[in-house]
């Protein structure tokens, strides 16, 4: 099962739309967004996804009620743990030592955003940051497609 992981889309509607098109073409079965959508209108392209999705709020997401309503409560406060395909996945925007400190050992994967830099690494748990989908800070729009069986991550540059 392939899932898409994004973060920091920051209202960039053309790139969000492009990402959704790629995820549909690649037949991803779930999407995770690690925060910083910014405005509720930026969620409109996600209605075209051919899969379900979930996410967490980021530090720049001010209109939490609107984001929650338009996402049909798919967006939660961070940190948040979901289970997909028998894998426990911790979602957050800002990752620090306290995040998931009580439950880290039970997680198969931790996904985060905020830094706008791609990161795929393994300490005790596979940890992934897809970089920034919006591309405003680094000039690079990126996402990750991850196979949940093998835990192999593919960086997608948009």
Protein model, in words:
The protein is 13% helix and 32% strand. It has 158 residues and is mostly beta strands. It has one domain (2-157): Metallo-dependent phosphatases (Purple Acid Phosphatase, chain A, domain 2), CATH 3.60.21.10. The strands form 2 sheets. A 6-stranded mixed sheet has the order 4-3-2-1-10-11, with no helix packed on it. Strands 5-6-7-9-8 form a 5-stranded mixed sheet, with no helix packed on it. The model has no long low-confidence stretch (mean pLDDT 95).
CATH fold assignment: Purple Acid Phosphatase, chain A, domain 2
Number of helical segments with 4 or more residues: 2
> What's the β-strand tally?
11
Shape: globular
Total number of domains = 1
Order of helices and strands: EHEEHEEEEEEEE
CATH architecture: 4-Layer Sandwich
Q: Enumerate the strands of the largest sheet in spatial order, edge to edge or round the barrel.
A: 4-3-2-1-10-11
Which class best fits the helix and strand makeup?
A: mainly beta
Indicate the CATH class. Answer: Alpha Beta
Give me the Rg, rounded. Answer: 14 Å
Distance between the termini: 22 Å
Which range best describes the helical content: under 10%, 10-25%, 25-40%, 40-55%, 55-70% or over 70%?
10-25%
- How much is the average pLDDT? 95
Percentage of residues in strands: 25-35%
> Any low-confidence stretches, pLDDT <50, length ≥5?
none
State the CATH superfamily name. Answer: Metallo-dependent phosphatases
**Biggest sheet record:** 6 strands, mixed
């Amino acid at each position: 099962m392939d899932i898409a992981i994004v973060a920091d889309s920051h209202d960039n509607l053309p790139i969000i739309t492009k990402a959704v098109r790629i995820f549909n073409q690649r037949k991803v079965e779930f999407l995770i967004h690690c925060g910083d959508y910014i405005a509720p209108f930026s969620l409109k392209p996600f209605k075209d996804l051919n899969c379900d999705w979930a996410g967490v709020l980021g530090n720049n997401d001010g209109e939490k009620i609107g984001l929650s309503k338009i996402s049909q409560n798919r967006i939660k406060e961070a940190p948040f743990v979901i289970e997909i395909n028998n894998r426990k996945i911790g979602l957050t925007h800002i990752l620090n030592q306290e995040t998931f400190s009580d439950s880290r050992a039970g997680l198969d994967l931790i996904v985060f955003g905020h830094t706008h830099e791609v990161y795929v690494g393994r300490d005790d748990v596979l940890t992934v940051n897809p970089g920034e989908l919006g591309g405003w800070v680094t000039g690079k729009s990126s996402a990750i497609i991850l196979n949940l069986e093998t835990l192999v991550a593919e960086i997608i540059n948009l």
